[in-house]
Amino acid sequence: MKKVVLMGFLGLASASLTVAAANEGHMKHHAQAGEQHPATATADAPVSQDVTISSCWIRSLPLPAPSAGYFMVKNSGAQAVKLVGAASESYGMVMLHQTTHEDGLSKMSMAHAIDIPAGSELEFKPGGYHAMLEKPHTTITVGSTVTMDFLLDNGQKASAQCEVKPANTKAH
Ligand SMILES: [Cu+2]
Q1: Which CATH architecture has domain 2-165?
Q2: Residue 78 Cα to ligand 1 middle (Å)
Q3: Cα–Cα distances in Å, from 101 out to 107, 137, 150?
Q4: How far apart are CA 45 and CA 22, in angstroms?
Q5: Confidence (pTM)
Q6: What is the CA(87)–ligand 1 centre distance, in A?
Q7: pLDDT by 10s per residue, the chain, length 172
Q8: Ligand 1 centroid vs 70 CA: distance in angstroms?
Q9: Which helix (H) or strand (E) holds 42?
């Protein structure tokens, strides 16, 4: 039962959230998932003219916890797209996650294809969708900028410059 309570705290992202709780929650989550996640390849993908990523920031957490990335996705095109993956040269692995709330508890799960309807925006934010950034190649320092690429189901990508912020940041 203890793990459920910890993950509940994590999803709330409330002022009472401590770094220690976030750290443990993420580690337990990933230890349990046990899935294999192939790294998303974005290097050769053409840049989308319709989909843009803005206001991207990364919550820096102490190692070995993964960091979480938040941003706004905008699809100004006439076609619906799906966000199907993400990658960063600064991390060995980036995954799309969704925190969901049920019966007063929250949990994280993999999000394999996230709909971005034509003309719409979707915010990735604490307590909802987020990018989970694992296996940093170097120390990711607060105040630095990390490039992230987001892969779409049409084979195109959208890129973002993400600002690294302290662990206790609540919103951008
Ligand atoms: Cu996550």
Answers
A1: Sandwich (2.60)
A2: 30
A3: 7, 32, 25
A4: 34
A5: 0.77
A6: 15
A7: 344 434 434 443 333 333 434 444 454 444 444 445 667 888 889 999 999 999 999 998 877 788 999 999 999 999 999 999 999 999 999 999 999 988 889 899 999 999 999 999 999 999 999 999 999 988 889 999 999 999 999 999 999 999 999 999 986 5
A8: 11
A9: none
